[in-house]
Amino acid sequence: MTIYIAAWHYRARVIVQRTWGWSPVEELVLLHLDEAPGTMESVKARLGLNAQVVGATLSRLMRFGLVELRTSPVPLLSTSALGRQFIRSGQPLPERTVDREIPVNLVYERVGRSVFRRRDVDLIPERDVGPIDYAVRFTRDEPDETDETMALRVGRFMAGTLRPGEWLRGVRAVNSVLRRGYLRIELNNARNGCFPRVRATNSSAPYVRPLRPASRLYSPPSHRRLCFRSRRNSTPTGSL
Predict the structure, then answer these.
(1) Cα–Cα distance, 220 to 213 (Å, whole number)
(2) Which residues are CB-neighbours of 188 under 8 A, at least 6 positions away?
(3) Residue 140: beta bridge partners?
(4) CA angle 6, 7, 13 (to 5 degrees)
(5) Residues near 162 by Cβ (< 8 Å), separated by ≥ 6?
(6) What is the pLDDT along the chain (240 residues), one digit of tens a residue?
(7) Nearest of 59, 193, 175, 201 to residue 117 by alpha carbon
(8) Contact status, residue 199 vs residue 119, Cβ threshold 8 Å
(9) 141-155 burial string, b = 16+ CB within 10 Å, else e?
(10) CA-CA distance, 148 to 67, in Å (whole number)?
């Protein structure tokens, strides 16, 4: 038996910010250039570092304005005014932050209050559910979902998927898509713990528990033995 559960399909982009400090190698190179301005080769020779490490370190320090290139009288790398300020005052170097955008494609169903990835569930348009289908339908009493309410659900969903040092800044609602739909569930499979089947991991355990309450809302009709009797007598002539 198939039932349908009202759900909201949401597509948007989330902004994730990563914050991290400076490594000891980066601080060592900064202190070295503060004491003795020089070239990339001099830093490599004195500190005994790999050329690739030195190049990447200098690039990051210059990107954040802590190291600058002097052109007079000869080209040399040295600490900038901002870098010298942090060194003289003994303040820790400012944390670095980088933003990145991640597309999200999620489905929220209101029976189990669960959020799924779109690729993990069978979602059909609202128009494809007929009036005689077994369905937990949208009601007028419940308010519609908005970008604000879905942003809270996206935040809770993304909490366990972010890398160390990352946090969710917000949801970019520009060009977002929010529409109604229905989750299609094979009721017997949901009762037996076989729904939905996740293609990536081939495991349904994380999704069965919140969907099991829906399986208790309806029971399939009982299978009765049907007998046909002839009009001349009441002797059963066949059965199904």
Answers:
(1) 15
(2) 1, 220
(3) none
(4) 170
(5) 16, 168
(6) 888 899 999 999 999 998 878 888 999 999 999 999 999 999 999 999 999 999 999 998 998 889 999 887 888 999 999 889 988 888 778 777 888 899 999 999 988 889 999 999 999 998 888 887 788 888 888 889 999 999 999 998 988 888 888 888 889 888 899 999 999 888 776 666 555 543 333 334 444 554 455 455 444 444 333 333 434 444 444 443
(7) 201
(8) yes
(9) eeeebeeeebbebbe
(10) 42
Q: Shortest CA distance to 137 belongs to which of 196, 217, 191?
A: 217
Q: What phi and psi, each to the nearest 5 degrees, are found at residue 79?
A: -70, 145
User: CA-CA distance, 119 to 60, in Å (whole number)?
Assistant: 38
The answer for residues whose C-beta is within 8 angstroms of residue 62's C-beta and 6 or more apart is: 68, 69
* Residues whose CB falls within 8 Å of the CB of residue 127, separated by 6 or more in sequence, listed in order: none
Evaluate if pTM is beyond 0.85: no
The answer to whether 53 and 43 have CB atoms below 8 angstroms apart is no
13 forms beta bridges with: 103, 172
The residue ranges of DSSP E strands in the chain, in sequence order, are 2-20, 67-70, 76-79, 96-109, 114-117, 123-125, 135-136, 166-186, 227-229, 236-239
Quick one: CA torsion of 217, 218, 219, 224, rounded to 10 degrees? 150
Respond yes or no on whether the N-terminal peptide bond of residue 73 is cis (omega within 30° of 0): yes
d(CA 212, CA 194): 11
Helices (H) and strands (E) in the chain, counts: 7, 10
